[in-house]
Amino acid sequence: IGEIQRFIRDDGSVKVSRSLKEIGNKIRKKKDELTKQMGRSPTIHEIADALEITPEEVVHAQEAAKSPHSIHETIFE
Amino acid sequence: MKNEMTVEFSSRSENESFARVTIAAFISQLDPTMDELTEIKTVVSEAVTNAIIHGYNNEEHHKIWMKCTIDDSGEIELIIKDDGIGIANIEEARQPLYTSKPELERSGMGFTIIENFMDSVEVTSSPGSGTTLHMVKQLAKTKTVYN
Amino acid sequence: MKNEMTVEFSSRSENESFARVTIAAFISQLDPTMDELTEIKTVVSEAVTNAIIHGYNNEEHHKIWMKCTIDDSGEIELIIKDDGIGIANIEEARQPLYTSKPELERSGMGFTIIENFMDSVEVTSSPGSGTTLHMVKQLAKTKTVYN
Ligand SMILES: Nc1ncnc2c1ncn2[C@@H]1O[C@H](COP(=O)(O)OP(=O)(O)O)[C@@H](O)[C@H]1O
Ligand SMILES: Nc1ncnc2c1ncn2[C@@H]1O[C@H](COP(=O)(O)OP(=O)(O)O)[C@@H](O)[C@H]1O
Ligand SMILES: [Mg+2]
Ligand SMILES: [Mg+2]
């Protein structure tokens, strides 16, 4: 299943809801980590740099991580 | 130098999330902290939810406007406006815990949250002529503006 | 059921990114694939960049409009409009590799990319009265709308 998932991911046919949720979870972890490290809330660019993604992705994914998006995810994750 | 955007969207509940991302995307040009970003998004949630639920009684075919102006100093001016039923007694509405819809299990804390996260909040409203929130927030430090 | 938004923003290059996130947030309600999302964002980049660079000659105080309508069938209607200098010969402008600003190392591929990623692209423009792109894209499958 790992192979198949990687394949699906590579060809970009993975649903936005799912991909964003994954990035969103990474953002949440990285935010906690940097907050401890720096003793303050990290800026959006600091998060983006640390995760090697764009600030655009941070903004979009942070929102997506908030709530479960679909029955599909409930079943398959 | 000022940068400005105005967005108009349908009074549908799924657009609360859309409005949150839109403001976050615009504000991110000032490189806010994640906490500042969360605060502004929360303000947008509360104001947009109020417009939908109270202003438009959950009717989905109306319009909500959000206008934001930012400048290099990190000042954010935010206006959220509906053309809904309006508010008769603004002072009462702004009281913590006041809600006109207790049956919906509303907390009555929307305005209090908004006031808490913004430096200034001005409410213009009257029955039949909609509600406008005019808010200002200065980000904590002057940060580099990324283009 | 249709959902609609219109956003108006300054013709500043940093708003290209803002426009990309705004469209992404709105379209995400249809839960597209990552590829579909990337395509739409690319289209927005190309159209907004054209408005800024060509339509407004990089003057930052003008306005650009983006309107998007989506429905449960997964159809996306996207309009991007400027009030800039306009295009004298639309057919020529749409040719692959044609650019009126070769000195800027433009690729001349903007329109071609837009046409490639959208199902239909209609350009309305004339010198002095700005440029409007009217585009439609149907997402691959009918998807559930998640709120
Ligand atoms: N946009 C609006 N249009 C009409 N009435 C509003 C609007 N926003 C707020 N109100 C009124 O102000 C009251 C308090 O709002 P709020 O503090 O957000 O509490 P809640 O939304 O939980 O009722 C609402 O119950 C409503 O009567
Ligand atoms: N919004 C616009 N306003 C004025 N002219 C435009 C606009 N969009 C495109 N054009 C014209 O069409 C040409 C082709 O556009 P495009 O295919 O994006 O190539 P490029 O941007 O690399 O020049 C541009 O060079 C310009 O002359
Ligand atoms: Mg409220
Ligand atoms: Mg171009």
Automatic annotation (TrEMBL), chains B, C:
Key word Kinase present: yes
Organism: Compostibacillus humi
Keyword Transferase: yes
Molecular-function GO term, any one: protein serine/threonine kinase activity
InterPro entries per UniProt: Anti-sigma-factor_SerPK, Anti-sigma_F, HATPase_C_sf, HATPase_dom
Biological process annotations from GO: asexual sporulation; negative regulation of sporulation resulting in formation of a cellular spore; sporulation resulting in formation of a cellular spore
Enzyme Commission number(s): 2.7.11.1
One Pfam family here: HATPase_c_2
Domain (Histidine kinase/HSP90-like ATPase) ranges: 35-141
Swiss-Prot/TrEMBL catalytic activity: L-seryl-[protein] + ATP = O-phospho-L-seryl-[protein] + ADP + H(+); L-threonyl-[protein] + ATP = O-phospho-L-threonyl-[protein] + ADP + H(+)
SMART domains for this protein: HATPase_c (SM00387)
Name of the protein in its database record: Anti-sigma F factor
General function of this protein: Binds to sigma F and blocks its ability to form an RNA polymerase holoenzyme (E-sigma F). Phosphorylates SpoIIAA on a serine residue. This phosphorylation may enable SpoIIAA to act as an anti-anti-sigma factor that counteracts SpoIIAB and thus releases sigma F from inhibition.
Protein origin, superkingdom: Bacteria
Family indicated by similarity: Belongs to the anti-sigma-factor family.
Record keywords, A-Z: ATP-binding, Kinase, Nucleotide-binding, Serine/threonine-protein kinase, Sporulation, Transferase
